[in-house]
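User: I'm new to structure prediction. If I give you an amino acid sequence, what do you actually give back? Let's try with this one:
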Amino acid sequence: MQMLPPLAEALHAAAGLIAAVLAGRNFDVALARAALPGPLRAATMDLAYSTLRAFGRGDFLLGLLLERPVKDAAARGLLLAALARLEARPDEAHTIVDQAVTAAARLARGQFKGLVNGVLRNFLRRREELLALAAADPVARWQHPAWWIARLQQDHPAHWQSILAAGNSHPPLCLRVNLRRTTSADYLQQLHAAGIAARALDATAILIDKPVPVERIPGFGAGLCSVQDWGAQAAAGLLDVQDGMRALDACAAPGGKAAHLLETARLDLTALDADALRAARVTDNLRRLGLAATVKVADARAVDAWWDGRPYDRILADVPCSASGVVRRHPDGKWLRRESDIAGFAATQMAIVDALWRTLAPGGKMLYATCSLFGEENARQVEAFTGRHADARRLLTTIAAQLQHLPDAEHDGFYYALLQKD
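Assistant: Good question. You get back a string of structure tokens that encode the predicted 3D arrangement of the chain. For your 422 residues, that looks like this:
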């Protein structure tokens, strides 16, 4: 098959990925199956991510531009990707339209070339009118599902607009320095020597000014650092681990928080994950960093299947959730997720923390953590837990008894609550 020009090739590949997501498939799975070569893969990911972040607007605009819906999923994906590109780069309009039509030649024996050309040129002619209509529609304006917007308005009445804006932005790239192998100051010098502008956020976190591929990060393969959001890095400090403690990371994959705990203190750490492939990632990450833990493939709820009866001093319960706080990293999530899913996550979270509580030693601490912004998974979950367990109390820390990180330019959205067993 003849290769297309670079932008047309990326548009064609992105169209397939977008079609897969709109059919209900996970983006990462679809990307892996596409097996795209390096340069094309990066360009396609950027284009597809941008399109999915803006899907609420693109879908609205297509509804105004089409006389009837396009049944071909790839053609619809191509139109969405091209519209997103036209909005982002209006000065390249002629090239974008030309390359989108070229990409359309690959679809269904070229029968959508005229449609793609006509829709995109119609958008350019009516641009101001259409964008004004989009600005008046909540889903098109905020580029999130209506139910998602409503929940944030309820749970964060003073911040819902900034949360939605952050969800549509490009995520920051933050590194965690492995203090067992280097210092933040020394590693920052290595970054600057490699021509990577960055700044320290605290003793371990370094924010990269402009994200770069992991292959360009100095010493990554040698375990000098890990990629981990600054908000996620808060877990290790909140859990207050000390040398010699017995600790559990109950939902550990891919291993970032487990590794941070081991970099913070010398622990007897067990890391669980219910999926064998994900558990293998924990092992791989610990090996790269020169760290060791007992990694088990196990469901945290099935305590009798994996627990040896010796209580833990510290437990990290980083439970499965809606991932609403990290949606800018996984923009397919906000369109694949359904409001009814939240109750399901809440039930799973309740089952996990109730099961884990009996493995915690008296006086021990458990950190409940999610990357969610929804109260049903966070504050209301913890309130219900303490109501069920008379021996559980929320600890006051130097930060707060419950800590909700809202997404911004430096970190994603996370929730933490520190609990102690009497």
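You can read the tokens as a compact description of the fold. Here is one thing that stands out. The chain has a mean pLDDT of 95.
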